[in-house]
Amino acid sequence: MHVRHRPLAAAVAAAFVIVPSARAQTQTLPPVHVTAPREAPAPAGATALTAGEIAARRASSSDTARLLEGIPGLSFLFAGGISSLPAMHGLADDRLRLRVDGMDLVSSCPNHMNPPLSYLDPAQVSSVKVWSGVAPVSVGGDAIGGAVVVESTAPAFSAPGEGMTTAGEISTYYRSNNAATGASLSASLRGEAMSLTYSGAAARADNSQAAGDFKPTIATARAGHTLPLDEIGSTAYRSRNHALAFAARSGEHLVEAKLGYQDIPEQLYPNQRMDMLDNTQKRGSLRYLGAMPWGSLDVRAWHEKVDHYMDFGADKRFWYGALSQPPAAPEIGSPCAPVGMTCASGMPMYSEGTTTGASARAQVDMTPQDLLRVGVEAQRYRLDEWWPPSGGMMSPGTFDNVNDGRRDRDGVFVEWEGRRDKRWVLLAGARYERVRSNAGEVRGYDPTTNGMGMMASYQKRDADAFNAANRERTDGNWDAAALVRYSPDETLDLEAGLARKVRSPNLYQRYTWSTWSMAAVMNTVGDGNGYIGNLSLEPETARTITATLDWHAADRSWELRFTPYLTQVADYIDAIQWNAATNAPATTLATGQFVVLKYVNQSARLRGFDLSGKALLAKTAMGEFGASGTFAWVDGKNRDTGDDLYGIMPRNARLALTHAKGDWSGGIEVALVARKDGLSDARNEIATSGYGLVHLRGSWHISRLRLDFGIENALDRFHRLPSGGAYVGQGSTMSMNGVPWGIAVPGPGRSMYAAAAYAF
Ligand SMILES: [Cu+2]
pTM of the predicted model, to two decimals? Predict the structure, then answer.
């Protein structure tokens, strides 16, 4: 799993991979993926997943982010069933650089329901690389944490003299807890100079079941639709993905074109007040990759369009007014308003985002030991978000959450990497990014009034103030990162990293404007609270120091790694409770309820360590027995208020015993999570108890067939997710405290899964 000591000088030679025809393959899954050779180096802090690891993990999850599960330093902020937000060393979401096929995708949703990694099905992922510590500046900018770089279908060509060949894979799976099913197909036509690949995947799941009752009866005002007390409301999803990739090569030059289409007709969110009832993404990219006399060149251009629609899904649907004849429970995803009923259509919200980007990156081989990476990047992002009138207070006109939002990035970087006497690897780089953002004038549903008394919504006051303000912002952000690795002998690697990273606020943080609680709670982070943007936000600046001690056998039959880190963030974007009436910070902290907060710059400190190890225990006639484990601790503090940062994972460990013999591999895995008591008081973050889960996994290769099966949470242990947010998965979630406060989203109970993949 860990990539180390990659001979960088040999990278160019590995630019193009020739895959023998399927007939010649002994392994059942596409065994080789083209790794872009000119990407940043793989220092000791880097982790890459192998094709086998990706295949095994996708059997138990349809969430591409969760392919990263078990990587030291990684955790998740859970969201919808296929859109978890990765967190590394206490930094999550768009504080991390999440790159898909070279594209820096942006979540076009006030609740970040469509994060970058959600745009690929796990079956479409061909390579995953993770920098959990200090990421070199060449890996990306506009982020203060680590990086995840995911590539979809890698181009593969037939061997010389072999002519046209075909290859592909079909796969399917089933998971018992939420009756999740899915299927994928990939097929490619390969010549010596051309390659065409289609990959498609579809997934669907019902709501998940917890291992026990976890909530009171919550009125949904929807007759005939009472969720069982152990059903985790709003966790169902359906998704469809298609991608087409064409590649041509000539000598040491490669041209690639990719088209992608994703439609998610439904993804429900147990920790958001809204559900994603349609999300479509269209994307296209072009890439040139080639060897040059002086090194190599990688040029990409791409465009993406997202149409996102939110409303209340089946578990959150409610009806205005008294209904003499309440409707029977409609199917999930069916229209809200039955014909003839006096019910509102809910609260439709539309987001439309487009991103256009281009980059050129060159690697210059200065000497056999020294190389230089230089690059320029540009990105144009546009966002509109509007909420059409839907009756009641949500009328008479259209509410602009973000109108004509723009966020443009222009970046340039240079990075040197050198090797000295086989024992030293040195890397240093700097990046400058200019981030310009702006947004147009806004209006509320009713731009003429602030409302009355308790029902005051301040739409006029807030819109007038926002529209009168200068909203154009230009940030000049300097990043720098340096790594040094020293390998005194074959059993020890020592690495240290130092970085300064800057990230500008996203459009929702800067330009959402309404202090009205009903509008604010539609801009949330999974904690059920409402958030108000702040035009005065400055970029976050993080300074990180990290070290890795990697002690191992010469053949890596055992290894032990220890990575402590410390990050200080100036102008960390946290949030403070806000009083809408006075339009000022709340003077007393409201506790035990959902609240409205405003984003503000404060300062933060994150520190912690990852410990991981593995060992081959025995190699016998019965097979190979191994053990592996990770332990992570992170502490995040707001240094201005002394409060704990939101969404920090408590101490956690994973231990696994594995067995492999011939075509079989299997294991038992124990996941332990401590009680969460470091809580963000400003956000009334919910405490969760510690727990331990046991997972059983097996996988079998029979010629071209790969079978994966297992039981997750085999002991059916009830647990609540420390980073799962607040449960607002059912009921009248539009009203801030109209749903019970204090219920952390539970994790699923026992789930048996089976998956099969056949390569042809
Ligand atoms: Cu959304």
Answer: 0.91
